[in-house]
Amino acid sequence: MQLRHALSFDTAAASGIQLRRLGPADAATFQYLRLQALREDPIAFATSYAAERDTPLDTVARRITPGTDRSIVGAFDGRGLVGVAAWHREEHRAMRHTGFVWGVFVKPTHRGRGLGRRLIDAIIFLARQADDIVALDLTAYSHNTAAIALYESMGFVAYGRERAATCIDGRWHEDVRMALRL
């Protein structure tokens, strides 16, 4: 399958990291890493650990089922899932030409190895396979300069800032909105 090849085209053998689309059988593994991300970096996500921790695995399995308009890519190091990135098509009729990148997270033990770039490359590849997607949008916490620099290096352009995008524990946090024309 072209997709599997495209997701493992680069340094998978040298790095020991394999990328693949997640499916329903990965629900428990995905949920474990997602909850870790929500605990470790709550400002980076629109949801919270408290809101997600009791989500039944069958619900998670439905959410991560891939389709032509959505996918979650996982990075595995042989011992388990160490990174994820996802995209989905916007649902509103007037915005169906746009995809949205969400849920990007790499375990701290695996950062600095280019894994975030590989995950986003895979998401861009998958979005390009979908009919009529002309752009990918994302939001990044404004103080996450490493993520913003990565996205910019991949062609994403900042087009706005939302000063009070999220409120975590009574503190407001700013997001940067970015887009990539496909």
Describe the structure.
- This protein has 182 residues and is an alpha+beta fold.
- The protein has one domain (2-181): Gcn5-related N-acetyltransferase (GNAT) (Aminopeptidase, 3-Layer(aba) Sandwich).
- It contains seven helices and seven strands, in the order H-H-E-H-H-H-E-E-E-H-E-H-E-E.
- The chain has helices at 2-7, 12-15, 27-40, 49-52, 57-63, 115-129, 145-153, and strands spanning 18-21, 70-76, 81-89, 98-106, 135-141, 157-168, 171-181.
- A seven-stranded mixed sheet has the order 1-2-3-4-5-7-6, with helices on both faces.
- A hairpin with an 8-residue loop joins strand 3 and strand 4.
- The two termini are 22 Å apart.
Topology of this structure?
Elements: H1 2-7, H2 12-15, E1 18-21, H3 27-40, H4 49-52, H5 57-63, E2 70-76, E3 81-89, E4 98-106, H6 115-129, E5 135-141, H7 145-153, E6 157-168, E7 171-181
Helix pairs in contact: 3-5
